[in-house]
Design a protein that fits this description.
24% strand; alpha/beta; 9-stranded mixed sheet; flat; 7-stranded mixed sheet
Length: 424
């Protein structure tokens, strides 16, 4: 029996009953559960159901409660857009006037679901038959089948004329994560796909150059790319948006088209940072890097999306701040200014890096809880933590291992939300 046949059996009443029974199962009991279920059901179907149950548990971090009703492949879990990010992109597309869209390289349909929920009719295309089967099943399971048409085809051969927009999400995994390997793992036990991410945009499948040309033919287009993409690889006639969720940078999106107005308008050549879940979005002004200067009473740690978008200078201007070093993305200022784009810390000490002096100072202050951050330092936080041998005190401290004017430096402080003020 091939993978598609096995997947189809999961959609039968017997397969559905198995998935329902496994909804809350504990993976540590898998051997006992599998042995029991195989007394009443075919072994292959039990393996497939167990694999799908494991994938659903992994997918809950991205899809929330929907994961319990959806269908996944290992590749689909790894590469699917987090639901909050997909919803943000779908909202922006809807605000740009998009009502129909071709979703190329749709995978298991995560983005198509968000788009449909935003009121956009979707043609979802992928060349992987199993991914397409999962996308159809997901649309059906979530009540969106009337909004999503799934087509198994080579995306480079699909005519997107007549659609308001195109969205492309190229594969960014090495050949070790071939879709054939992912298919086998998904229905035979849900094993994790192997291999690593691809960082060369031309090694995407399809290549970024093809996706860019396809995007330029559409009235509006969005291309999902890895957030670490080199800026020199980005097309100059597009806006690139870096998106973080809960402080973690999740992806970058290249936007094409002269559409929209206000905050949602696509700005040719623009660089944007968007922070979820609040949705704060900053469009860069192309400012030069600020001059470095001495460490002030406050230190700001910009969100990763701000750093990736090269918008540290924009935040520094808003904060009336300066860099602590020309090569370090920490901003310092003499007064506290509220901003959603950076975490603020009250700085109490600025010291040359010296482990023994730091250990003595923390012991003197009764510090038992330390958050250690690094930027521009060769010291590993966990190695330093072992050397500090912190006691059981309740006092907390944030330690920044960094450089100030080129010199290895330790900055000690507290989050601005703590009831403390700078103590220098």
């Amino acid at each position: 029996m091939n993978d598609l046949d096995t997947f189809a059996r999961l959609l039968t009443p017997e397969g559905q009953a198995l998935l329902t029974e496994l909804r809350d199962y504990d993976p540590s009991d898998e051997l006992a559960v599998a042995t029991r279920l195989r007394r009443e059901h075919p072994a292959g179907l039990v393996s497939a159901a167990l694999g799908q149950a494991r994938l659903r548990q992994r997918a809950a971090a991205k899809f929330g409660a929907d994961a319990g009703r959806m269908y996944f492949t290992p590749n689909g879990v790894e590469q699917s857009t987090r639901a909050t990010v997909a919803a943000h992109r779908a909202r922006r597309l809807a605000a740009l006037g998009v009502r129909t869209l071709a979703d190329l390289c749709c995978g298991i349909g995560g983005d198509a679901i968000a788009l449909a929920r935003a009121g956009i009719r979707v043609l979802a295309v992928d060349r992987d038959p199993l991914a397409c089967a999962a996308a159809r099943a997901n649309a059906e399971a979530l009540g969106l089948a009337e909004w999503i048409e799934v087509r198994c085809a080579d995306v480079t051969e699909v005519d997107t004329a007549g659609y308001d927009a195109v969205f492309v999400d190229p594969a960014r995994r090495s050949k070790a994560t071939t879709k054939g390997a992912a298919r086998s793992a998904s229905v035979r036990g849900g094993g994790r796909a192997t291999g690593g991410r691809i960082f060369d945009p031309e090694a995407y499948s399809p290549p970024l150059s093809w996706a860019v040309e396809a995007a330029r033919k559409a009235p509006v287009a969005a291309l999902k790319i890895a957030p670490g993409v080199p800026h020199e690889a980005l097309p100059e006639d597009a806006e690139t948006e870096w998106i973080s969720d809960g402080g973690d940078v999740k992806e970058a999106v290249v936007w094409f088209g002269a559409a929209g107005d206000g905050a949602d308008r696509i700005t040719s050549g623009g660089r944007r940072a968007t922070l979820l879940p609040a949705g704060d979005s900053l469009l860069g002004a192309g400012l030069p890097d600020p001059e470095p200067g001495p460490v002030g009473d406050w230190l700001y740690e910009p969100d990763g999306a701000v750093i990736r978008a090269h918008l540290v200078a924009d935040i520094a201007q808003q904060l009336d701040g300066r860099l602590i070093d020309p090569t370090i993305a920490y901003i310092t200022a003499d007064r506290l200014t509220a901003t959603p784009y950076a975490a603020a810390y009250a700085i109490t000490d600025v010291l040359p890096f010296h482990v023994k002096k730091l250990k003595a100072l923390l012991r003197e202050r009764g510090v038992g809880i330390a958050v250690i951050k690094k930027r521009g330092s060769a010291v590993e936080p966990e190695e330093l933590r072992k050397k500090l041998k912190l006691g059981g005190g309740r006092t907390s401290c944030t330690i920044f291992l960094t450089r100030v004017a080129g010199a290895p430096t330790m900055l000690l402080g507290h989050p601005a939300t703590d009831p403390v003020t700078p103590g220098r």
